[in-house]
């Protein structure tokens, strides 16, 4: 039997309404189900950041966008602007709209929209933790390895990344989310993730009348910078969209923000986006280099990791790695990766499995 993970406090994952008090001001996280955002919506978000906070927009490891350095009370104006742009359809459910989908698949987008609508329409699901994650994978295996609490892999239900015998669509994901809340209540737990419950995947599967399977779903590496059919994937250095970059992307109609801090744009429009500083070359030293916020935005950080990562890229000594300022390891990618951890004695390089 798997032991339970004890959480001593409720999840305080930030949203666009419930912001986190960081060292540099309020931190708001704007959920983008499936990573989709229109050019008009991005323009609203860019303008709001420029007028209310830090102009740069942060991309997260779940394909969302963050606004930093909000002064006290500015989150209300931000929420009003997001609501008007259609980026905040539910103030009660805004923190639980964590939906990551295969970014290069247009086929999954109606499914994302349907699940998002069902999620927001059910009052009880507002109780889901802000870290609860749904993955919708078209079967190629790029987002299933992110180990969503509930997910679909080519219509097969996954629970904490483990496949089950059940098959379905958005309604099945809603049932699975309900089952997680019911199992959590029966275990008298305040777990943030399904895998933190005692035998969570097995017990939730049983509630749904299905079983786990031993079949391993397909896995594929995330799409890197470059041309992919009619689309182009562009790396965003350190996951920070500058105002000129977000302005360039706003002119493209619609983009997809991925969980790997890249953006998907029409291949025909790639040249204009690259002129703003986004990276299309898979051999670029920026490819695969990510970082947490670090100093001065995070009081717990031991270093200005972004400045140090930039210096390493400029010096030609950088490798694909995630730079972090403390042992909380915020924003770390799933799976095997190189980590550069700031310590009082400097950076420690390690390979994280």
Automatic annotation (TrEMBL):
**Keyword annotations from UniProtKB, A to Z:** 4Fe-4S, Heme, Iron, Iron-sulfur, Metal-binding, Oxidoreductase
InterPro entries, per database record: NIR_SIR_4Fe-4S (IPR051329), NiRdtase/SiRdtase_haem-b_fer (IPR005117), Nit/Sulf_reduc_fer-like_dom_sf (IPR036136), NO2/SO3_Rdtase_4Fe4S_sf (IPR045854)
Domain Nitrite/Sulfite reductase ferredoxin-like: from-to ranges:
27-82
Query: What Pfam families is this protein classified in?
Result: NIR_SIR_ferr (PF03460)
Tell me the GO molecular function terms.
4 iron, 4 sulfur cluster binding; metal ion binding; oxidoreductase activity
**Gene3D superfamilies, per this entry?**
Sulfite Reductase Hemoprotein, domain 1, Sulfite Reductase Hemoprotein,Domain 2
Protein name from the UniProt record: Precorrin-3B synthase
Which species is the source of this protein? Dactylosporangium matsuzakiense
Lineage here is:
Bacteria, Bacillati, Actinomycetota, Actinomycetes, Micromonosporales
């Amino acid at each position: 039997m798997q032991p339970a993970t004890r959480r001593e406090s409720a999840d305080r994952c930030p949203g666009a309404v419930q912001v986190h008090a960081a060292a540099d001001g309020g931190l708001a996280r704007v959920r983008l189900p499936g990573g989709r955002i229109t050019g008009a919506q991005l323009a609203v978000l860019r303008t709001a950041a420029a007028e209310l906070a830090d102009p740069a927009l942060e991309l997260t490891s779940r394909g969302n966008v963050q606004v930093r350095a909000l002064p006290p009370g500015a989150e209300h104006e931000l929420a009003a602007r997001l609501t008007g742009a259609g980026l905040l359809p539910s103030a009660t459910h805004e923190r639980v709209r964590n939906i990551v989908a295969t970014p290069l698949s247009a086929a999954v987008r109606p499914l994302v929209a349907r699940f998002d609508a069902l999620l927001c329409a059910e009052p009880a699901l507002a109780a889901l933790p802000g870290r609860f994650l749904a993955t919708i994978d078209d079967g190629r295996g790029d987002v299933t390895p992110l180990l969503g609490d509930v997910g679909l892999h080519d219509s097969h239900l996954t629970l904490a990344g483990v496949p089950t015998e059940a098959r379905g669509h958005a309604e099945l994901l809603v049932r699975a989310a309900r089952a997680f809340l019911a199992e959590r209540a029966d275990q008298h737990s305040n777990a943030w993730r399904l895998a933190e419950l005692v035998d969570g995947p097995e017990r939730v599967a049983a509630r749904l009348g299905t079983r786990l399977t031993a079949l391993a779903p397909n896995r594929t590496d995330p799409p890197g910078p470059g041309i992919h059919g009619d689309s182009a994937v562009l790396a965003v250095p350190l996951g920070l969209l500058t105002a000129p970059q977000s302005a360039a992307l706003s002119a493209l109609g619609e983009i997809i923000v991925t969980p790997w801090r890249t953006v998907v744009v029409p291949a025909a429009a790639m040249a204009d986006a690259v002129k703003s500083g986004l990276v299309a070359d898979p051999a670029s030293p920026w490819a695969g280099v990510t970082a947490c916020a670090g100093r001065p935005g995070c009081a717990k950080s031991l270093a200005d990791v972004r400045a140090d990562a930039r210096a390493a890229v400029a010096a030609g000594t950088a490798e694909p790695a995630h730079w972090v300022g403390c042992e909380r390891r915020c924003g770390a990618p799933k799976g095997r990766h190189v980590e550069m951890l700031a310590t009082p004695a400097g950076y420690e390089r390690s390979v994280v499995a």
